[in-house]
Structures are given as structure tokens and as C-alpha cells.
Write a structure and sequence with these properties.
mainly alpha, two-stranded parallel sheet, 8 helices, globular, disordered N terminus
């Protein structure tokens, strides 16, 4: 794969190194004091490039939803029952919204790290909510969004009855479980939805 010609706003050190290896120019920023979207929009305007929002974009939502289509196809190939509930690791709600559109017969449950639970708060309040100005540290850096967007929330409000929160300890427990039982080593965000079936009812 190649990312030559791409310009991205990233702050995680491992992702920085791997992305640079693929040829992309990386622009760093401070998540708590700078706005990633404003930085990216400025870069795109300066270069006459296309700006693609990480989750608040209809094509991104549609693309994320293709994961649900693949899940349903694989279940069918295996002769398994259709999915009735899908847990989705959630930041801004792109994946959750995409799954909700692609899998209308399944209940979609967004799962967020505690303190970075803007989608959970928004579903509960019935309107978009922010995590505030001082959310806690989390290993799930890819899920650190301050609030979802109207395009995502319109889908989530209509299709998601509730969201779930996981603790940092639950994420670490899921990492250990996945390595010991599934031989998987993934970034922490990938374990948020795995914590729930192993620890508590959903």
C-alpha cells in the first residue's frame, strides 16, 4: 500500500512511524488545544486538495458500512444465523452509522471508552453532546472525538437505542484475552467491543 501524496493529522507515535513509512506527510498537533479538522481544512485549501472528514462524511459512512455487509455475507456463507446485535467501537460514529444503515435488521450498539463517550451521551440526551474540555487519558486514541456530527447523529438517533462505555481496565483485560485465546495483537481501540462479551451483558 502507498499513501504518497497524502497529508494527515496524526499524533500517536507508532502510527506516525508506520504512516511515514508508506510515504505520507504527517502533520502533528495537540489534541487538547488544537482543532484537527481546522488544520486539515487549512492544508487542503492551501494545496487545492480534497478534504475528507474522518467520520462526518456520507462516503466515509457508506464505506464503513461495507464492514456490515461483509459480516452478513460471511455469516450466510457459514450457515450461521443473521446478526441481531452488533457491537461497534465508536469515536465520532462513522462506523456505527454505517453499520446501522447497512444492517437494518440488527441492533447497533456503539462502544466508547469512559470519558470519551460523546455518542453515548448524545443518544441518552437526544441531542449532540460533547465530552467537555478535560476528558481523561485513554489508550484508545483513535476514539478520542469531542463530539459527533449532525450527519452521524441523525442516523444514530434513529437506529441506536443505547451505547455502552468501557473502562481502561476492561480494555487491558480484553487485550490479554485476545492475545491468549485468539493470538491477536491489535491497537487498544480494537478491543473496546471485545471487552463486553467477556466481562458483562450487553
Amino acid at each position: 500500500p502507498s499513501l504518497v501524496g497524502s497529508e494527515m493529522c496524526i499524533r500517536d507515535s507508532i502510527k506516525l512511524a508506520r504512516t511515514r513509512e508508506l510515504g505520507a506527510k504527517v502533520v502533528t498537533y495537540d489534541r487538547m488545544t488544537q482543532n484537527r479538522e481546522e488544520i486539515a481544512q487549512g492544508l487542503a485549501a492551501d494545496k487545492g486538495a480534497a478534504y475528507v472528514h474522518a467520520f462526518a462524511n456520507p462516503w466515509v459512512i457508506e464505506g464503513q458500512g461495507s464492514a456490515g455487509i461483509e459480516v452478513l455475507a460471511q455469516l450466510q456463507e457459514q450457515g450461521a444465523p443473521r446478526a441481531t446485535r452488533i457491537l461497534a467501537c465508536c469515536g465520532g460514529g462513522g462506523l456505527s452509522a454505517g453499520l446501522a444503515l447497512a444492517c437494518p435488521d440488527a441492533a447497533i450498539v456503539p462502544v466508547e471508552p469512559e470519558g470519551w463517550d460523546d455518542v453515548c451521551r448524545s443518544i441518552e440526551a437526544g441531542e449532540i453532546q460533547s465530552v467537555g474540555t478535560s476528558p481523561p487519558p485513554t489508550a484508545c486514541d483513535a476514539l478520542q472525538t469531542f463530539q459527533t456530527s449532525p450527519i452521524n447523529f441523525a442516523v444514530l438517533k434513529a437506529r441506536c437505542d443505547y451505547g455502552l462505555r468501557v473502562t481502561e481496565d476492561e480494555v487491558r483485560d480484553a487485550q490479554r484475552f485476545a492475545f491468549a485465546n485468539l493470538r491477536l495483537v491489535l491497537e487498544p481501540v480494537s478491543y473496546t467491543h471485545l471487552t463486553l462479551p467477556t466481562n458483562r451483558e450487553v
